[in-house]
Automatic annotation (TrEMBL):
It comes from the Bacteria. This is Transcriptional regulator, LysR family. GO terms for molecular function: DNA-binding transcription factor activity; transcription cis-regulatory region binding. The keyword Protease does not apply. It comes from Syntrophobacter fumaroxidans (strain DSM 10017 / MPOB).
Amino acid sequence: MELRQLKTFRVVANLLSFNKAAGQLHYAQSSISAQIQILEEELGVQLFDRLGKRVQLTEAGVRLLQYANKILDLVDETNSMVNRVNEPTGSLTIRIPETLGVRRLPAVLREFHSRFPRVRLNFITCALEGLDKDLRKGITDLAFLLAESINAADLDMATLGFEPVVLVAAPDHPLAAKRKVHTRDLTGSTILLSRVDCSYRKVLEQILEQEEVTRFNRFEFSSVEVIKHCVMAGVGISVLPSIAVAEDVARKRMVVLPWSEGGIQVAVLMVWYRERWISPTLQAFMDVTKKVFAQAAEKPSRAVSTRT
């Protein structure tokens, strides 16, 4: 069994595609197939079920992937310690909500890239579904969430701060004329929800359920920017982080409704897999992120006021 074969196996297992693995590793697909076949023959088990053009890990493949991750992480750690690598290199794949990516990430990237220009960074819009599995598999190295918490015993997290969440509408929306908006006033409204900005939408859904508000129109979007423009066009109302709407509220393109549930905040969580070795590159990114968020917390932020 060679490390090259384990690396190839891990890529195929994560992508569940021989063709995509060949592209990522810059091998011919026949070379990928040959490496997996040799590995299967050496172990005496089938690692993948071939279903036409699709592949699926067998039970033996799932077990091998866990050990392959440990072995390859140990190799990386050994190389780093023996060679005394001082400057982080390589690549990281990071999942982050759109709001944090637009409003908080640029400051982190500016400092990190100036200090570690050799690191390649790949960012994916964050969706809560499947996040824990991707962290365990190593598909995702690090994730950020706008959430109260995440329930997974093998994931570690650090709280970087808190973001206020507000209920917004177009200035001419009927609810914008009210001095106080109660949750039951949302009955019959069109509510615009985000699929990908992680879990702060659950705050609204929980409140609606508690207040027994069940009659409303639900529109779902894959972009916070699209939601904002739909709000400004009068399509409906939405719950969004204050930082996402501050500029539009200041320019009076939308208003923050005086919601009786005011004062809601969600935590900014940085999440990683506890069992995985923290490489110098990943540690450097985590350290820079913590520093930049701490500096931002020390600066006075522009408040978004509600309309009264």
